[in-house]
Amino acid sequence: MRFVPRRHLPHDAPAWVAGGALFFVTLHCAVRGREQLTLPPVAEPLLEAVAHYHAEGRWFARLFLLMPDHAHALVAFPRAEAMRRVLSDWKRFTARHADVAWQRGFFDHRVRAGENWEMKADYIRANPVRQRLVNRAEDWPWRFEA
Predict the structure, then answer these.
(1) What is the gyration radius of the CA atoms in the chain, in angstroms?
(2) Would the pLDDT of 52 be above 80?
């Protein structure tokens, strides 16, 4: 059986996509299936870094939610910032300051016209409930919302 090399996507919005377009992003830890991101000494600096990038205008984080071994976010990037660069910078910073080993790359999906971003937000918020980590989404402490 012949293996096809993994194709790396550019993760940059095309020129015709307006700055500030919203993206559903998923970031995974290098080691899956083990609680890493939701331990307080890790989760707190991660969410502080999310808030810092938001306050500095590197991204607009509508929602950023930590799960034990991955994170989901609804984020927009100003035209002057490349999504790939901002996420790489954030992952590099959090790797040093929160001791997180991230999987290379990330998954992104642009929330297109006609798609309901609030439905995506509800899906993200319900993730800890689906994983039976809490009974109600509002009880999950490891999230940032703007």
Answers:
(1) 15
(2) yes
Strand segments, DSSP code E, in 15-125 are 22-28, 60-66, 70-76, 107-110
Q: What pLDDT score does 79 carry?
A: 86
Bridge partners of 63, per DSSP, are 74, 145
| Closest alpha carbon to 102 in 60, 23, 49 | 49
Report d(CA 102, CA 33) in Å as an integer.
13
Q: What is the pTM of this model?
A: 0.86
- Contact yes or no for 117/129 (Cβ under 8 A): no
For helices 40-56 and 83-98, angle between their N-to-C axes, nearest 10 degrees: 140
Alpha carbon distance 8, 33 (integer Å): 24
Residue 88 C-alpha from the chain's centroid = 11
Q: Which helix (H) or strand (E) holds 52?
A: helix 40-56
Dihedral sign computed on CA atoms, order 80, 145, 72, 49? positive
